[in-house]
User: Which sequence fits this backbone?
């Protein structure tokens, strides 16, 4: 069961509610986020919610049968919208485009990308400074030095930053330089990292695991939310299957399913989702009609020379065309029956 | 290597060409279809095509490195269009909608569907009379009797029939009553059936196997083509993965990949692809932007009462809305940059 | 529900039982096999079996909740043993070794294999005469001519034949020349073929589908059994997964699971299961301890020259060593606690 | 390329070697482990190794084409054996049994397990104190307090501890209380954690990722080795596939493949590998014949009451029987041809 407490509730009243729930053999987890104060009760007994609902201090109570509670749409029907400031939002009512290189490589590179984005009125830039690489001998990113520069250049243009955090100790050092923390596909079930991001007042974008189910993605979001951070978005980026004709299998089925199960925004990453540059735009456009709230893709002035992921990266001409097409498709989507 | 022979070539000239290719240690397969006469040469030696190309009777010669040859776009660049007569076509330049129930159940049922389709100007109806079912105790379809009735009713309305053939012996008995033979996902590698369909002068729609790769789907099409039948289309219908939130994982990545690899039309079946009625329209629309040449989906007057697949079947209101939306999206697609 | 009827039951008594079951809203399928006469009732109502059980002519009655009924161990606890004559058996109490080439190629090839098998006291030889091949241009087997020769040579040595049947029309022509019909991994859900094999009085070995579940394999066996043929065995041969280090992923988990769910014998094919010659013996030995009733693998005098599957085929030295090791491991298995 | 340097090499000699390799356009990574000092050169140029091999200070040089270098058997042919002290070893020449509960729960629980293990002469106990759980509301383990107690009780009995480390900050605090750090299946590609474990002088057991390939597992081991820690072992524990009849699909194919590709010991975890208590012993025994160097499984006095994973946990009677059988099978393995 999920209880939203009245704001500014006195400790004694809260204690009384908790004690009542525990009396029903439910285990209580207290969750205090940027927006509200909740009690999550986990138990098996079949109880009458009204008895608890009438206690002083209970603003709202719901039965949520899903494994995940706070991120479920069974409880919160209104979609979550993340406000990044300066008019940049992620969530229903807007269509979000996040573009940029796989890796941050140099000041010159960032400037060309920022020029491209601002010319196309794109307000969010992606770019990795800490890179998870299968081999220890591959380029692992520019690190904090790169991030500080990225932040400085992007700020000057009014562009927001989405970048991957790989471990708990980076959360604090990266905090002041990012607008959205990205949790990568290899860390979707790095529970300590999710816990740490629960303590932060910045949006978190969680990518689906390489072979993660939709349920697991939602449970990972529940970790962050129950840790105290409601500012969450999810991202489908392709799953691992037997098919080798594409890098991953972009599971667009997950988009309408997630949109019904959760109130969180759902983005799609077609670059990793198919992994072949020529087809990235097709999959990006398809994702819009599957119901995505936004797209996150890779672009670079010269994809052939990119430090990583060149084979799935668009050049600026392709990227510009995609942006224009995305907007036309999104516009159509709003008028469909 | 792939050779197209000049029409009406004398046997001696053909024999001379074959003998020349065999002299190069290539194994030759002769293919005579409705449209032309080909020689497919399989071998490993690195040879100079021009020497063969200059032989009398060779109209065209190409090197095709793919496992599949005749269905490859490396050889035939112009897309294949299937003309079903009466102005009904499948392939580029048209957007094909095929709708209808999972199973043919009764005359009344067919009439309601035909009414719905003709009202919406849909010219192709699907419906199974032979049903592949996992359990031997499930409904297995109305058989030939159902097909004859289906044919009679559809003809009266100018609607074409797409229906599944399950075994070699059915090819002949079904022949006069179908417009498109469908090969189901469990028979994609039923090579004897593919061979038999190679000898038929009716279009064949091959569904991707439940866990079939894109390469295997193309090789299955090669079977039919090399058997003598060029009238082929392919259909993505979802693959089997670890994800259980949907019935299958619709692999829209396969659409642009197939469109580049082959000249054959590519349809998408969102009903089996996601298996959840509420989300079928989203995936159908997404498929259009992934580049599909058409959509094949399930509709029934009362999905709750359908003999099979009710959970993924649209009612007529949903189906009508989908048809209108599909046409608007297809219209937009033609104007995208 | 599953009812075994008394032998030689009068038609009127049978009709009375059927009518009683149908009165309970159960759909009845009558199954008459080589061994007995059954009624399979499919329905949802929660009924008291005793009322039916006391009707005249009912020898035995069971509730079977599985999708598959006749092959379930919930009904028949005693393991099925297939008796091929001349002291050759498949099933508990024996450990079956089936070995031979992927494809039958020539009389000389068959003779060398038969020599090898008889020297090692192996009584079952595998070898394909009809070969399912992904590409229409690959070698497709010697056909009936090869089978007749295979039969003649094997008979002369007292060796039994296991060979793949690919389509309905082959069932009859192959019948007199095979001892065990094999259904290949691409035909596990070729329901027409399964139906046809239900009408035959020869054992059938069904391989698991390339991406078939354990449940589906059992349902495929149910097709043959409910068609009238109880002489059945199953074979795990590797499934398709994301892993590319091996040809398939041999799912030995399936062995103890199948042994509990069904009374049918369970063999394992390590050659297709891993697809790498050097590791085939390891997997064969592992399969014995997973509980397999036998092993089916590929051997050839010169694997490098085999017409197909050479990369996973043992030479005779490797094969002889494997046979001796298999027997030692099986002997140990019988003495484990 | 991989170079082992002579012990105690002068800095100038080392610098000369590095400079020579860099002159060949190879990127050099210096690796100093507990046992030796290496240079790993990554590059594409086709060079003559002898020129480098003759430089002063080069003890050994090898070309290794794999993505992973230091863990490859192409370089180090002799199998790695981990010596945990007190006669406890992991690696060829011994068969390692690691048993214990999923989670450490209480002093009483640990004592019953330790009794069981010492009675059966098992020297390694597993048990989680930090538990990765999909849901934030599940039991997450006793933490450091539990580990200190675990260490104290196990030490008193001469039993070694294998336990999971989940994040970088735990490496140091856990260090003095563990004998083997286990990296769980959700952290196989937690590269920061792998880096941190490279700096430790304690053995590390890396479990294969839930959908990790064999190649990725080896690359993860390369991270730890190249970070300075040679004391490594790998563990197959089942992968995620479409099959739902078992919790995971135990991929025993991976055992002989890994044994050929790497010099590191390979263990198997049948508890997670199949996830069904009754079949765990079968799969454990099968793993021995697939070539495993040891087995890691879950046991608990009362599996029904275990805090986690009860459904796949053996009771002590089952565990004792398994231990005796494992030893008999391992004994047989050593005598097979």
Assistant:
């Amino acid at each position: 069961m999920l209880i939203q407490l009245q704001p500014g509730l006195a400790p004694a009243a809260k204690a009384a509610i908790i004690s009542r729930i525990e009396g029903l053999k439910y285990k209580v987890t207290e969750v205090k986020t940027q927006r509200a104060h909740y009690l999550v009760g986990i138990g098996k007994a079949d109880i009458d919610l009204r008895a608890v609902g009438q206690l002083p201090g209970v603003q709202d109570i719901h039965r949520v049968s899903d494994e995940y509670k706070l991120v479920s749409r069974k409880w919160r029907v209104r979609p979550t919208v993340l406000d990044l400031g300066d008019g940049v939002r992620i969530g229903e009512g807007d269509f979000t485009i996040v573009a940029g290189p796989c890796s941050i490589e140099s000041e010159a590179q960032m400037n060309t990308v920022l020029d491209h984005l601002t010319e196309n009125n794109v307000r969010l830039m992606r770019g990795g400074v800490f890179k998870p690489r299968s081999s220890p001998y591959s380029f692992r990113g520019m690190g904090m030095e790169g991030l500080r520069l990225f932040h400085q250049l992007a700020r000057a243009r009014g562009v927001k930053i989405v970048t991957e955090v790989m471990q708990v100790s980076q959360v604090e050092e990266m905090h002041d330089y990012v607008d959205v923390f990205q949790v990568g596909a290899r860390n979707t079930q790095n529970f300590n990292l999710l816990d740490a991001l629960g303590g932060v007042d910045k949006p978190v974008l969680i990518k689906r695991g390489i072979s993660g189910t939709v349920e697991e993605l939602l449970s990972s979001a529940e970790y962050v939310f129950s840790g105290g951070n409601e500012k969450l978005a999810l991202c489908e980026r392709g799953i691992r299957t037997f098919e080798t004709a594409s890098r991953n299998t972009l599971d667009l089925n997950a988009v309408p399913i997630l949109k019904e199960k959760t109130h969180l925004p759902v983005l799609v990453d077609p670059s990793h989702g198919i992994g072949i540059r020529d087809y990235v735009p097709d999959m990006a456009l398809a994702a819009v009609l599957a119901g995505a709230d936004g797209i996150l893709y890779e672009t670079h002035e010269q994809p052939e020379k990119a430090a990583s992921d060149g084979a799935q990266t668009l050049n600026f001409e392709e990227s510009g065309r995609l942006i224009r097409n995305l907007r036309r498709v999104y516009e159509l989507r709003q008028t469909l029956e």
In short: Chain A has two domains: 2-62, 82-336.
